[in-house]
Amino acid sequence: MAAALAASPAAWAHPHMWIDARAALQFDAQGRLAAVRQEWLFDEMFGAYATQGLPRTQGGGLSPETLRGLAGQWMGALGEPISHYFTTVTHDGQRQAFDAPRDAAVDWNPATSRLRLSFVLPLKSPVAPGAQGVSVDIYDPTYFVAYDFGEAGSGTVTLQAAPPGCRVAYRPPKMPDFKTLQQLAAIPADPDALPEELFAITKGLTHRIEATCS
Questions:
Q1: What is the maximum alpha-carbon separation in the chain?
Q2: What is the pLDDT of residues 80-128, one digit of tens each?
Q3: Nearest to residue 109, comparing CAs of 174, 35, 58, 51?
Q4: Are 1 and 116 in contact (CB under 8 A)?
Q5: 126 Cα distance to chain centroid
Q6: CB–CB of 17/145 below 8 Å?
Q7: Residue 82 belongs to what domain range?
Q8: How many structural domains does the chain have?
Q9: For the whole model, what pTM was predicted?
Q10: Distance between CA atoms of residues 164 and 135, nearest Å
């Protein structure tokens, strides 16, 4: 994914990629948050671009081997420090560490030219949300990727195997004002050159998921 973005035309307006997203907070048998499962459905433009030159099956699709290769490459790129899976989990004021991601898979719909990536991020140490809760922030600090979880209550954010008394809430990012949008549009194509003040702005564009358990 990082290679595809780096090869994209630098003149494109930010963001470069749009994702229809879903997230599920997975609990273990002790009632602790153990993992975050995500599904990212990429826009048609990225799907067409990313599949250019890839070998096709007789029916015009992509082979399981090709899709597994894409999943491995993308998860490797997403594990880089600047992206870190575009996901942060915080509990009791502390950022939680992830174990190696699992169950990464890519599927492709040739009729719509849309690729979908799904994966699970396990926490190194599961945490019990309690009344103070646990927060999951999903955003791209370089503003190359724009997420859409739909409206609150649309079913794109869920709890899995959560004990009774647990609730989930989703808070979308606030729409930036016109001046901020102008600043974001001027983000350089090289994410390593992103000014610190713009990093501060993009942090405000997070999609926040909060789970609490009484």
A1: 54
A2: 877 789 999 999 999 999 999 999 999 998 888 899 999 999 999 999 9
A3: 51
A4: no
A5: 20
A6: yes
A7: 2-213
A8: 1
A9: 0.84
A10: 19
